[in-house]
Amino acid sequence: MSPRRPERRSEEAANAVIQAALDLCQEVGYRKLSIEGIATRAGVGKNTIYRWWPSKAAVLLDGLLSNWKLDASFPDTGDFVTDIKTQMAAASRTLGGASVFPHYRALIGEAQHDPELQRALWDRFIGHLAGAAADRIRIAQRQGQIRADADPDLVCELLYGAIYYRRLLTTRTADAEHTSAIVDLALAGLAPPGDDSAR
Amino acid sequence: MSPRRPERRSEEAANAVIQAALDLCQEVGYRKLSIEGIATRAGVGKNTIYRWWPSKAAVLLDGLLSNWKLDASFPDTGDFVTDIKTQMAAASRTLGGASVFPHYRALIGEAQHDPELQRALWDRFIGHLAGAAADRIRIAQRQGQIRADADPDLVCELLYGAIYYRRLLTTRTADAEHTSAIVDLALAGLAPPGDDSAR
Amino acid sequence: MSPRRPERRSEEAANAVIQAALDLCQEVGYRKLSIEGIATRAGVGKNTIYRWWPSKAAVLLDGLLSNWKLDASFPDTGDFVTDIKTQMAAASRTLGGASVFPHYRALIGEAQHDPELQRALWDRFIGHLAGAAADRIRIAQRQGQIRADADPDLVCELLYGAIYYRRLLTTRTADAEHTSAIVDLALAGLAPPGDDSAR
Amino acid sequence: MSPRRPERRSEEAANAVIQAALDLCQEVGYRKLSIEGIATRAGVGKNTIYRWWPSKAAVLLDGLLSNWKLDASFPDTGDFVTDIKTQMAAASRTLGGASVFPHYRALIGEAQHDPELQRALWDRFIGHLAGAAADRIRIAQRQGQIRADADPDLVCELLYGAIYYRRLLTTRTADAEHTSAIVDLALAGLAPPGDDSAR
DNA sequence: CAATAAGCGAGACGGTACGTCCAGTCTTCTT
DNA sequence: AAGAAGACTGGACGTACCGTCTCGCTTATTG
User: Fold this and answer.
1) Which of C91, C99, C98, C95 shows the shortest CA–CA distance to C108?
2) Residues of chain B whose pLDDT is less than 50?
3) pLDDT of residue D193
4) Per-residue pLDDT tens digits of chain A, which is 199 residues long
5) Which residues of C touch D148 (CB under 8 A)?
6) Which domains does chain B have, with CATH numbers?
7) Nearest-5° angle of CA A60, CA A63, CA A69?
8) Quick one: which of B194, C170, D57, D138 has the fewest CB in 10 Å?
C-alpha cells in the first residue's frame, strides 16, 4: 500500500499529486475522484501516479498522513479521565473536522472493499493512534486510575468504537459532549451502583 | 433507496436480480460487481434494474434484508447479561459469517460515500437492530439490572461500537469470546474496583 | 474487415464516423489520426467505432468506398487502347487526386502490416477494379485487339503495376502522359522491331 | 534519414540496436515493434537510439542494408532475357524470402505515411536496384536486344512494377515462374502477332 | 374485446475512466 | 562525452461500465 520511495522519485510531482487528490476529493467527492482527474490537475502523467501508488485511496492516505503529522502523542497531565477526554475532543475536532473527515471517512469506506488498504490504513494511521491510546491506558493502570485487569486494547475498542460507530453508521453527529459522555459511561460501567457482581 | 413497489413489477425478475447480485458479489467481490454484470447474470434488461433500484448497493441491501428476515427480536430470559451475550454471539455468527459479512461490510463501506445509502442502511437495517437492543436495555434498566441513568442509545454505541470497530478497522477477528469480553468490560466499567468516583 | 451491418446500427453515427475520419486524415495525416480523435470529432463514443470497425484503416476503407461509388465500369468504345488510356487517366485523376490519394495510399501502406486489411482492400476495392480491367481485356482479346494467349490478370499486373510502382515507390509523379507511355510500351513490347523471337 | 556517423559512436551499441530491431520485428511484427522494446532487447538506453536514428523504420532500413550487402550488380551473360530472369528470380528468393520480405514490406508500407522514409528507401535501396537494372537495360539496347526507343526507367517500372503489384496489393504469391511470365509478356508486348501498328 | 399502456429482454448510444503502453525528453550516475 | 538506466509529461490504446435510449414482444387492465 505504501509507495516505494527510491531516490529517483520526483518529490515535486509526488507533492503535486497528493495536493491535487486532496483538493479534488474536497471539490467533487471521493466517488467522482479519478486517477485521470488527479493527474490532469497535478500536471502529471497518469503513469507517474500508477508508478508510486496502487490506487487513488493510497494517494489520499498519503495526503492524510502528511496533513496529520502523526502527532499521536497523548496528553499526560496525570489525570487519565481529563487526558482521554482532551484527546478525544481534539481528535474529533481535527480528524472529525470538515476538511479532514470526508477524506478519512472515504478511506475507511474504501478499505471495506480493499484488504490491502485496510491493512495500510491500520498500519500507517489508526494503529498508531490506538497504540498511543493503549500506552496511555497502561500508564493509567499502573497509577491505579483504571482497573488493572482490563486489556488495554479492549479498552480502546470500547472507547473509540463508540465514536466510530456513531460517525460511520448512525445519522447522528459526534461532538465533544458525546465523547465525554461515552468516557463517563465506560468508566462507570453499566452495572447499577452498588452491584459489584461484575467486578 | 427502497425501490418502488407497484403492482406491475415482475417479482420473478426482481428475485433474479437480487440473487444474481448476491452471487456475483460473492464471486468477484463488490468492486467488480456491475449493474451490467448483474443484468446479464439475471437474464434481465439493464433498465429493469435501473427502474427499481438506484444503485448496485441498493440491490445488495435488498438482498441482505431478504436473507436476514429481520428477526431482530432480542432474547429475554430475564438475565440481561446472558441475553445480550447470546444475541451478540448469534449476530456475530450470522451477520459476521462468510456468506453475509462480505455483503454487509461492502454496504457499510459504500455507505461512507453515499449519504442516501447510509440512511437507508440505518433505517432499514442497523436502526432496527439498535432499536431492539435499546428496547431490551430499557427493560433491563426497569428491572434494575443495569444502571438506570444511562442513555440506552449510548449503551448500544458502547457495546456494538466495539464490535464494529474491531471488524471494520482492525485486522483482528471478532468472535463470541470477544463480544463476551466486551460486554463484561462495559458492565464492570473501567474505574478500578472500590473507586466510586465515577458513579 | 468489413463491418457488420445489422438493423440496430445507427446510420447517423456511422456516417459521422466515416466523415470525421476522412476529414481528420486530410487535416492531420494518417499517422496522427486516432480512433479517439475520430470519436471526438464525430461526437460519438469510442465504443461505437470499435463495435463496427476493427481499426481506423477499416473506417477509411469504408470512406474510400462510399466516395468512390465503385463505378469500376470500364469504357468500351471498341478501341481497347483508347479505352484503357481513358480509364487510366480517369483513375489517375480521381484516385490519384489530392483529395483521395492520401487516404488510398495510407490504406495501401497500412495493409502491408495488416493481412486482414490487405485482403479487405483487395476484395472490396482493388480487386473490383482489376476484375473490370480483366473483363475489358478479355473483350479486346476476343476482338483480336490484343494477343489472345496473354493471361488477362498478368496484363493487368503489367499495366497497373507500373503505375503503382511509380506512385508508391519512386519519387516521380504519375500523370496521364505517364500512363499513356506505359500502355504504349506494354503494347509494343520490349523486343526490337522485326524481332519475333519472343512472339 | 541516414544516421549521423561521428567518431564517438559506439559501433557495438549500433549493431546491437539493429540486430534487436530485426529480431523483434521478426518475432512480434512491425506494428508491435517499439523503440522501447528495441532498447531493452539491445541493452541500450533509449536515448542512444534517438541519437542516431529518427524512427524505428530507419533502424530497420539500416538492418536491411547491412543484410543485403547491396550486391545490386546485375548479371551480364550477354543475353538480356536470361539475365533479367536470373536477377528477378534471385531477388525474389532473397528480398522476397521469409527472413527479409516482412521487414522490406513493412518499410515500404511505412514509407507510404512518411515521405522522408520513402525518399531514404529509394535513395539508399530501391533506387540502386532500379539504377542497376536501367544500366543493364541500356547495355541490352546498345546490343540491339531490346528496342532502343524505350525509356529504360519506364522499362524498369513495367517489369518490376508488375512484381511489386502482385506482392503488395494482390493476395497471390510471386515466384520465379511469375517473374519469368512477366518478362516474356513484356518482351512480346500485348499487341497481337503480326500487328505492327504499335511499333 | 380490442386497444393501450406498462414492464420486459436486448442491446446500441454518448460518455468517462480504467490501467497499459509507448513516444520523446530529460536527468543522473557510470564508464 | 557517450552510454545505461529510468523517471518524467503526454497521448492513445482497447476495455468495461455508466446511465439513457429505442426497439419489438408479452401481458394485463380498462374503456
Assistant:
1) C95
2) 1-5, 198-199
3) 80
4) 444 445 678 999 999 999 999 999 999 999 999 999 999 999 999 999 999 999 999 999 999 998 876 566 788 999 999 999 999 999 988 899 999 999 999 999 999 999 999 999 999 999 999 999 999 999 999 999 999 999 999 999 999 999 999 999 999 999 999 999 999 999 999 888 876 554 4
5) 192
6) 11-66 (1.10.10.60), 70-188 (1.10.357.10)
7) 140
8) B194
Whether B166 sits inside 8 A of A157 (CB atoms) is yes
DSSP state of D172: S
Nearest protein residue by Cα to C1' of nucleotide E15: C45
3-state secondary structure chain C: CCCCCCCCCCHHHHHHHHHHHHHHHHHHCCCCCCHHHHHHHHCCCHHHHHHHCCCHHHHHHHHHHHHHCCCCCCCCCCCHHHHHHHHHHHHHHHCCCCCCHHHHHHHHHHHCCCHHHHHHHHHHHHHHHHHHHHHHHHHHHHCCCCCCCCCHHHHHHHHHHHHHHHHHCCCCCCCHHHHHHHHHHHHHCCCCCCCCCCC
Residues 124-163 of D with CB under 7 A from strand E: none
| Residue D109 · residue C113 · CB < 8 Å | yes
Which residues, 6 or more positions from B166, have their beta carbon under 8 angstroms from its beta carbon?
Answer: A157, A161, B172, B173, B174, B178
In degrees rounded to 5, what are phi and psi of residue D63?
Answer: -60, -45
Report CA(C56)–C1'(E6) in Å, whole number: 43
C-alpha cell, A174: 459526534
Q: Are the CB atoms for C4 and C52 separated by under 8 Å?
A: yes
Question: Which one of C113, C130, C150 has the shortest CB-CB distance to D190?
Answer: C150
Residues of D in contact with C114 (CB under 8 A): 31
Q: Which residue is nearest to nucleotide F29 (CA to C1')?
A: B8
The nucleotide lying nearest D50 (C-alpha to C1') is: E24
Do the chains contact at B126 and A169, CB–CB below 8 Å? yes
pTM above 0.85, yes or no: yes
Interchain contact, C154 vs D162, CB within 8 Å: yes
Phi (first) and psi of residue B65, to 5 degrees: -65, -40
Q: Buried b vs exposed e over B101-119: b needs ≥16 C-beta within 10 Å?
A: ebbbbbbbbbbbbbeebbe
Nucleotide nearest A42 (Cα, C1')? F9
Facing B188 at nearest CB: one of A169, A171, A189: A189
Q: How far apart are CA D109 and CA A86, in angstroms?
A: 75
**Closest Cβ–Cβ partner in B151, B158, B187 for A198:** B187
Strand E nucleotides within a 7 Å radius of protein CB atoms:
6-29
* C-alpha of D189 from chain center: 26
DSSP characters for B59-88?
A: HHHHHHHHHHTT--PPP-SS-HHHHHHHHH
B169 and A29: CB-CB below 8 Å? no
Does the beta-carbon distance from A185 to B109 stay under 8 Å?
no
Q: How far apart are CA D37 and CA D28, in angstroms?
A: 10
Q: C-alpha grid cell for residue C164?
A: 503503382
Chains that touch B (3 or more CB pairs under 8 A): A
How far is the C-alpha of D86 from the C-alpha of D92, rounded, in Å? Answer: 10
Closest CA to A108 of A160, A61, A151, A53: A61
- Are 3 or more Cβ–Cβ pairs between D and C shorter than 8 Å? yes
